Structures are given as structure tokens and as C-alpha cells.
Request: fold
Amino acid sequence: MAMTVVVCRGPVCGDRRDAAALTAHLAESIARRGLADRVRVAEEVCLGHCLRGPNVLVCDDDDRNPVLYNRMTVADLDRVIDRHLVGGIAVRPLMYRPPVRDR
Ligand code: FES
Reply:
């Protein structure tokens, strides 16, 4: 099944919480693991959950079963790649994480 991973690059996720590192790691990991034929990487301006950022949205190519992951780190992203993109199972502990306020 083809999937799209959308990394938020909005003013909170991207500018203040360095989502660029997530995009770079995702692109490198997908290429290295040979997933490029079924995983597409995209970026969005804002996913509407800024206080939970950086946010990453994973959805099937028919836009069904969207899963929004919050407060993502590179280590979290590795879990999503292994469990969700390869294994097909959403990583529940990375969903619905509480908001954080910048200090
Ligand atoms: S800036 Fe990422 S959800 Fe708004």
C-alpha cells in the first residue's frame, strides 16, 4: 500500500522546532531502506495542531486512515518508519500527545 508522510513546516513546527531535521531524516531513511516506491514525503504549511508540534501526518494514498503524530523527534520518526510505514501499524504512544508551550 502506498503512503504519504506529511511533515509540517509551519511557523511553529518548522521554524521554532526544527522540523527540517525530520524531513531530512525521513528522506534519507526512505531512500536507504528502499521504501521510495511506496512512501512519498510531502510538506505542509500548518496541520492545525501547532502546540503539539513538530507534527507528522501519515496517510494512505487514498487519504484514508490518517494518523497524526505529535511532538516528533528523529528517534520517534524511526519508530514510525519501522512500525507504521514498514509494519502497517500506527504507533499509538506518539499520537494525541499533550501540547507544549515554548519557553
Ligand atoms: S505549524 Fe505545525 S501544526 Fe501549525
